[in-house]
Amino acid sequence: MITVELFKLVRRLRTWMSIGLICALPLVVAIFIAVTHLEPPPGSGSAFLSAVLNEGQLYPAAALALVLPVFLPVAVAVVAGESVAGEASAGTLRYLLARPVGRTRLLVAKLASVTAFTALAVVAVTVTSYATGVLILGPSRAAAVGTSPGGITGSIAPGAGGAPTAGLQPGAAVTSLSGAPLTTLELAERVLGAMAFITVSMLGVAAIAIFLSTLTDSALGAALGALAVLVASEVLVTLNAASAVQPYLPTRYWLAWIDFFRQPIFWRDIQHGFEIQAVYVVVFLGAAWANFATKDITA
Amino acid sequence: MITTEKLTKRFGRIEAVREVSLDVREGDRYGLLGPNGSGKSTLVRMLLGLVYATSGSISVLGEPIPRHVGRVLPSIGALIEEPAAYPQLSGRANLRLLDAAGPHGSRRTRRRRVDEALEQVGLAGIDRRPVRAYSLGMRQRLGLAAALVRRPRLLILDEPTNGLDPRGIRDIRELLTGLNAEGVTVFLSSHLLGEVSALCTRIGVLDSGALVLQDELAALQGPTGRVLISTDDPERAVATLDGLVERRDGADLVVRSPDPVALNARLVAAGVPVRSLAAERRSLEEIVLGVTGAGTDQFSVPATGAPPGSAATADSADVSAEREPS
């Protein structure tokens, strides 16, 4: 059943359109920066963006930071929100279930398919932005030393230590946020870690959207519902008054992937991030299952 | 093959299906009739484990539903209301996908089974066009092909000839009759009486969720005790059959007589040229309208004093019975 879902995923034009759009954003940003040579001043703008003119190889990280807050979750919510509701409104759901495909199996296959979509999008962004970084930005203007990593807004975990300094020694390896140099291999490892973490970060949204997708026959409704949850979560994450619930918000540790670029890797928030996503998947997929398994399929 | 006992389904306060005890036997071509909104689709969905019954029990192919739905459904081909397919894929890709999604669809035989099913429904020459570009009739045929891919023992078809042209309807009828002759039990729901009377051997009639009639079609359509005669010399026929003629319409006579053979002999002996002569049988329309009320798509003020079945008597004059050569 998972194979069938993956086949449906890759044979849909929408999959490739949305991945194309997600990849286009970092490309547009890179072109603007390359043409104007104007990076966001350190301490503002998206993470890593203030360093990419110096080090094009860092651009995948900057690109991931660009698509993470909106583009990626929107795409994931749309795909996951459509998963059951779309089949219901198209009428194919009843034929799948009468085939028979077990309802639990169907939900698991849907989550697998959404995860595959997320991973595909993250890989596509990384690959295209690496090419963009090297070709358009390039390591040519390796001059500015001591760029501040403060640009990683709201992401530095409390207790991560003083403001680390990312900089570039001319001709040397990429520098970590903590100042120590990273070899290309280390950088690749850390990018892979970040990619995995970001993919997992989207599972919570995916599970919420799949749950909503079993409640309604409207794919749009399910996607928008999941996005509403995300927006609420992002608002609360920055609200001091909501600090009591912050550790449990699905977006709380979304930016912890940046810790992969510290030397040594700062694991605490990364681990929390994995844990909170696992909780969301279990709770919402469980709720989806409880609802879907006992539901009358009248669509 | 299908037995239900006092099957009931309530959606909130609406009772969609009420204590239905269905009995479909092996080898039947069973037609479930009923006006729109009479509960046919809900009943079909309950048989397939899509909708859960409020009370009562279902057994399909000897197994309880929905508990053993996974064991039973692989041997069933189903068309559930309209056909549905992934519009961006070709018809063939859709069938392969659906086959691959569930159990008992051997990958080895898949290509052959898909091609066979497409051939059975008259889509053998189908190209790689996506289903999006299909006509309504092609979609319907594809839906039927999807029901046939696993070579089922039982077909459960909701409105199988929906959207088909007359040739398509005849093709499907011949296909279903052929499959039935090979041992496939056919259970179909329809509100097209002509379809059911041309195809089915047994019928059930649903009205407002209740099964108001279930019997062999032949038994229901027993002779009415009247004979329909068409003759070139109606005057002499009336004179010969003095007193037995109930109604005369030009050259056509309706004669009260239980024995068409004796009647024919009498006319021939009297030198009346008989063009055709047949025992009158109740039409399916009369039978169904006699036991059902208005459908839920109809909102008329009930006429005072009119019994619910009165439409049948009003119609019976127009609905000439199917004539069978005797």
Outline the secondary-structure elements.
The complex is a heterodimer of chains A (299) and B (326).
Chain A: H1 2-10, H2 13-36, H3 59-67, H4 71-90, H5 92-97, H6 103-137, E1 174-175, E2 181-182, H7 184-201, H8 203-215, H9 219-237, H10 267-293
Antiparallel strand pairs in A: 1-2
Helix pairs in contact in A: 1-6, 2-3, 2-4, 2-6, 3-6, 4-6, 4-8, 4-9, 6-7, 6-8, 6-10, 8-9, 8-10
Chain B: E1 2-11, E2 14-20, E3 23-24, E4 29-33, H1 40-47, E5 55-60, E6 63-65, H2 69-72, E7 76-79, H3 91-101, H4 107-120, H5 136-148, E8 154-158, H6 166-181, E9 185-190, H7 193-199, E10 202-207, E11 210-216, H8 217-220, E12 223-231, H9 234-240, E13 245-249, E14 252-256, H10 260-269, E15 274-281, H11 284-291, H12 310-315
Parallel strand pairs in B: 4-9, 4-10, 7-8, 8-9
Antiparallel strand pairs in B: 1-2, 1-3, 1-5, 5-6, 10-11, 12-14, 12-15, 13-14
Helix pairs in contact in B: 3-4, 4-5
Give an account of the 3D structure:
The complex is a heterodimer of chains A (299) and B (326). With 299 residues, chain A is mostly helical. Chain A is built from ten helices and two strands; from the N terminus they run ααααααββαααα. In chain A, strands 1-2 form a two-stranded antiparallel ribbon. Chain A is globular and about 60 Å long. About 11% of the residues of chain A have low confidence. With 326 residues, chain B is an alpha/beta fold. Chain B has a six-stranded mixed sheet with strand order 7-8-9-4-10-11, sandwiched between helices. The longest helix of chain B has 16 residues. In chain B, strand 13 and strand 14 form a beta hairpin. Chains A and B meet through helix 1 and helix 5 of A and helix 3 of B.
